[in-house]
Amino acid sequence: MNNQSLAQLQITHPLGLKFTGETFISGVLSALLPYALILAGLFFFLNIILSGFKLLTSAGNPEGIQEAKGCLMTSIAGFLLIFASYWIAQIVQIIFNIKIVGG
After folding, report:
1. Lower CB count within 10 Å: N or C terminus of the chain?
2. How far is the first Cα of the chain from the last one, in angstroms, to the nearest whole number?
């Protein structure tokens, strides 16, 4: 058995990403964040299309229109929340000189 401490542990990801023991969680989150933003954008786009389809097929039904508006507002709020969290992380990264997002 190797007597290596957790801080010295080196983990290599199949895609070639390297994480050390003391920064493992932050390294994983930093590596996955760009993909999360892409997925959030795709999900937002699909929800806009779905909301438009619901609005068009509601045929003037007030309940259908409200459902479509609710779906659209929820997707806009969710995307703005994810977008704002990314930029807040960027600002915190610059102010405190710590690596949160990227690289």
Report:
1. N
2. 33
Q: Which H, E and C letters describe 28-49, residue by residue? A: HHHHHHHHHHHHHHHHHHHHHH
- Which positions ≥6 away from 83 have C-beta within 8 Å? 37, 40
For 62-91, write each residue's pLDDT tens digit: 999 999 999 999 999 999 998 898 888 889
Instruction: With beta carbons less than 8 A apart as the criterion, state whether 17 and 31 touch.
Output: yes
Report the sign of the C-alpha dihedral through residues 92, 98, 101, 103, in that order. positive
| Structure-block tokens of residue 102 | 């990227």
